[in-house]
Amino acid sequence: MTKPRPKYLALHEIRLPLAGYASILHRVSGAGLFLMLPLLIWLFQLSLDSTQQGWALFAAITGNWLVKLILLGLIWAFLHHFCMGIRILLIDIHVGVEKPQAHASAITVMAVSLTLTLIFGLKLLGAY
Q1: Which residues, at least 6 apart from 72, have a Cβ–Cβ distance to it below 8 Å?
Q2: How far lies 81's CA from each of 2, 22, 32, 47, in Å?
Q3: CB contact set of 14 (below 8 Å; sequence gap of 6+)
Q4: 62-80 burial string, b = 16+ CB within 10 Å, else e?
Q5: CA–centroid distance for 34 within its chain
Q6: Fewer Cβ within 10 Å of end Cβ, the chain: N or C?
Q7: How far apart are CA 113 and CA 120, in angstroms?
Q8: 45 exposed, middle or buried (CB, 10 Å; 0-12, 13-18, 19+)?
Q9: Residue 13: its pLDDT value, please?
Q10: Which three-class secondary structure string do you get for 10-71?
């Protein structure tokens, strides 16, 4: 007798390994970077403006705490996406495919991206 299939998928009951969460965050960070690209290009354009008004506008915008929070999120997104991309490239050449190595590399990606985000975040806030 076959077991009946469930009628719904209970997402709160699924237990993903850490590599699964890192993979989901890789997709989320890539989407966030893509969607915030117009803002980043605009801020980059303002930072390159040689007029006093352009630089004053850039300083006023980036001085806002909400913009700093958004930029901190984008810093994390870039660093996580970059580190996870290196992990995926290594997996593509069959390095770290076994379960213990995959778990260790997922921990490394999380630790490195969060540590670098902390360092760059302190620089963003002017404390470092």
Answers
A1: 117, 121, 124
A2: 42, 10, 10, 24
A3: none
A4: eeeeeeeeebbebbbbbbb
A5: 11
A6: N
A7: 10
A8: exposed
A9: 84
A10: CHHHCCCCHHHHHHHHHHHHHHHHHHCHHHHHHHHHHHCCCCHHHHHHHHHHHCCHHHHHHH
Distance (Å, whole) CA 40 – CA 46: 10
The band of 5, judged by pLDDT with boundaries at 50, 70 and 90, is confident
Look up residue 89 and give its two tokens: 């490239």
Amino acid letter, residue 66: L
> Exposure pattern of 26-35 as b/e (b: 16+ CB <10 Å)?
beebbebeee
CB 26 within 8 A of CB 84: yes
pLDDT tens, position by position, 50-65: 899 988 999 999 999 9
